Amino acid sequence: MRASTALAVFAGILAVLYFWQPENFYLWVKAFHVIAVISWMAGLFYLPRLFIYHSDAEPGSQQSETFKVMERRLLKIIMNPAMMLTWIFGLYLAWDVYGFRGGWLHAKIALVVLMTIVHVIFSRAMRNFAVDGPRRSARYWRLMNELPTLLMIAIVILVVVKPF
Predict the structure, then answer these.
(1) Which residues are CB-neighbours of 58 under 8 A, at least 6 positions away?
(2) Given pLDDT bands bounded at 50, 70 and 90, which one contains residue 11?
(3) How many Cα atoms within 13 Å fall on the side-chain side of residue 70?
């Protein structure tokens, strides 16, 4: 419900701005895109950390059950809406501002697709933890924790430097 409310508020603000058409509409969309990206990245950084600790918790224990709640809420309330908004605002900017032209933009979109695949992997892992299914090791999750960071670094360089 909270995630739906947040999405509705964002959609409402954007609708008002779209129909109002201020001169700086592009900057509003860009600001919302950056806010969504920051929220999504925070979740992508934190969720594998929870998995590291959850891997060490005894299945069915109070600690394990607490991690299940934390993981589910992080994914459903923050990460999923933030990912959707990132895509919506990002595709709008790619279309309206850049006309989907530029090698750097194509590379960025490809990396965001990879980031989305990482999100899906984390989502599946959360569902697996939720049913006390087979677990990967804490070491595995420590390595997976680095993947969003590497993708983020490459994406930011592409967006700021536009090397090609």
Answers:
(1) 64
(2) confident
(3) 15
Q: How far is CA 106 from CA 42, 99, 155, in A?
A: 24, 11, 11
d(CA 39, CA 162): 24
Range with lowest mean pLDDT among 23-32, 101-110, 142-151, 155-164: 23-32
- Cβ atoms < 10 Å from Cβ of 143: 11
User: Across the chain, where does the E strand assignment appear?
Assistant: none
pTM over the 0.70 mark: yes
**Single-letter amino acid code for the residue at 58:** E
- DSSP at 60: T
Tokens of 101: 């032209």
Residue type, 91: L
Listed residue (65, 91, 71, 79) closest to 119, CA to CA: 79
Which residue is listed with tokens 């001169």?
23
Question: CB atoms < 10 A from the CB of 160, how many?
Answer: 9
How far is residue 100 CA from its own chain's centroid?
21
Tokens of 115: 């980031």
